[in-house]
Amino acid sequence: MTVKKQLKILLMLLKMKLSRNMAFRLSFFGAFFVDGSLFLIQIILFHAIYSQTGSIGEWNRPQMLLFIGTFSLLNAVNMVLYFFGVITIPEKIKSGQMDLYITKPLNTLFHLSFENIDIGSAPLVPASLGIIWYAISEMDIPVTAGRLLGYIFLVLLMQILYYDMEVILRTLPFFFIQTASIERLEGELLGLCMKIPGTLFKGAFKALFYLILPYGIMATVPAQFFAGVLTPLGFVYSIVVVVAFTVFALSFFRFGLKNYKSASS
Amino acid sequence: MKKYLETVKVLFKSQLAYRFDILMNIVFSITKILLAYVLWSAIYSSSEEIAGFTFNGMMSYYIISTFISQMNKSTSTGWQISAEIRQGLFSKYMVRPMSIFGYFSAHTAGVALFYISFNLAAAVLWTLLFGVNIALAAGFQNILLTVILVLLGLLFMMQLNYFIGILSFKFLDTGIFMMIKDNILEFVAGSFIPLALLSEKVIIVMKFFPFYYVSYLPTLLLMGRNGHEALQGVAVLTVWNLFFAVLNAITWKRLKVKYEGVGI
After folding, report:
1. d(CA B234, CA B227)
2. Helix, strand, coil percentages, rounded to 5, for chain B
């Protein structure tokens, strides 16, 4: 499928979503208010902590702000583009609605992921960029093109990783009917890694959040790169993790589709 | 009163059907303690004491406050009320010969009572796992005042969640209100950091609101601190409970007429 055709379909899905949203006008900016309040409170809380101490591990105040801003940006793009689409996958498997998606002449995962684009979450993106801009202005380092491009590259990579993780966990219902606890686990662990940089974890928890469920590297690696503390090995490691998880996510979803037994799944 | 006690009993027993949920509830309570452990380990590597807390005191604070805040099971009741109004399934409560608020309070109490022993087991487990020497230093008076504050706090949270739930008569979907409330609650109730870390002016303002007394003050009382604030807490929570009792009665009377019982 060509990029032009995909963009056309994306636009059509967006129009359909907007017309559906008109039925729940109060909810239109819901995700913006919910996630906006979450990150705003996180900033206030860390401001309170930094009033008592100069650094948390090796993270000073502007670096922590950059970490929060980066996670907020990743979350914002996630909410706008694919979150509300991907989260519907388990229900569609259970109810048999997946039949409708399989039979359409369109990539199933692409359709499922982008059919619920949420424009109401879009204000989170400039708000996150504002936090990032403020954090950078507080840092005592030169903003070079290389530093900026490297940061953007890593943010894009981590956005893909965010998507991979969501898809992998939502593919499990092809094999297990009850996966509510797995989704709750995702919420809890994501909430944990959203609050503290991955470098603060030690031992088994570091292995868990860097390798098995790599939520720990998502905002940490781009923020570390911008602050100039990411090692070359760390840079390569994050690329390898994203490639590995992307290949696995796409293969796992295809394998799940092969195991799909319509309404009896 | 008997019918409400029966509701408590039924809900208590029915929880046995959700054994996997019980296990998950215990497992997931670790995330808050783990967050505190990782965050404060890094901070205390360069400081001995912060806002009057040693590292052991700080970990004790998180374990006790997590135990107290987990007693509050009214959030899911608020979601349930909202969902049943939206789906048109709320009619069954309207025809029952008992107060709807009373029924949902008994429902929540049944679930909360069932979980208390498991939450206590989880608290003991995390205490041993993280090697915390729990800093309990409360006398009989403080324990009594803690019990009173916790009960008043749970009643207040029930009233707040019930209020947001019945707003569904007007707004259909109150999920946004619930989630924003949860985010704010994490801050103002001292779940993420002890409120002692905030500036004195902010704390003075917070003392006029009920959230300061729901889990933060009871935790400090059990740690043998802030005993002089307990009676003030009882008074503030009582006033807020009365305010919400009136607000809920008015809201119920005004909004129930909008209910069509068909759902969307």
Report:
1. 12
2. 75, 0, 20
Q: How many CB pairs under 8 A join A and B?
A: 82
| A137 in contact with chain B, both atoms CB, cutoff 8 A | no
Q: What is the dihedral of CA A203, A207, A209, A211, to 10 degrees?
A: 170
How far is the C-alpha of B239 from the C-alpha of B210, rounded, in Å?
9
Minimal C-alpha gap between B259 and chain A (Å): 17
Contact yes or no for B180 and A56 at CB 8 A: no
**Which residues of chain B are within 8 Å of residue A41 when distances are taken between CB atoms?**
183-184, 186-187, 192
pTM over 0.90: no
Question: Interface of chain B against chain A, CB under 8 Å?
Answer: 20, 24, 28, 31, 34-35, 38-39, 41-43, 45-47, 50-51, 171-173, 175-176, 179-180, 183-184, 186-187, 192-193, 197-199
State the pLDDT at residue A23: 64
pLDDT of residue B106: 95
- Burial level of A191, CB count in 10 A (0-12/13-18/19+)? middle
pLDDT(A247) > 90: yes
* A259 secondary structure, DSSP code: T
Alpha helices by DSSP H, chain A: 3-21, 30-50, 61-81, 83-86, 89-95, 98-102, 108-114, 124-138, 145-171, 180-195, 203-207, 220-227, 232-258
Choose, out of A124, A192, A208, the residue to mutate when testing the contact with B (most B CBs < 10 Å): A192
A203 in reach of chain B (CB within 8 A): no
DSSP A121: G
Enumerate the residues of chain A whose CB falls inside 8 A of the CB of residue B50: 52-53
Complete DSSP assignment for B190-209: TSSS-GGGS-HHHHHHHTTS
Question: Which of A26-35, A224-233, B216-225 has the least mean pLDDT?
Answer: A26-35
Tokens encoding A213: 């469920």
Cα distance between residue B124 and residue A218, in whole Å: 33
Q: Give counts: helices (H), strands (E), chain B.
A: 13, 0
Q: Which domain holds residue A68?
A: 3-21+29-264
Subunit contact B184:A38, Cβ cutoff 8 A? no
Name the DSSP class of A225. H
Q: How far apart are alpha carbons A173 and A9 in whole angstroms?
A: 27
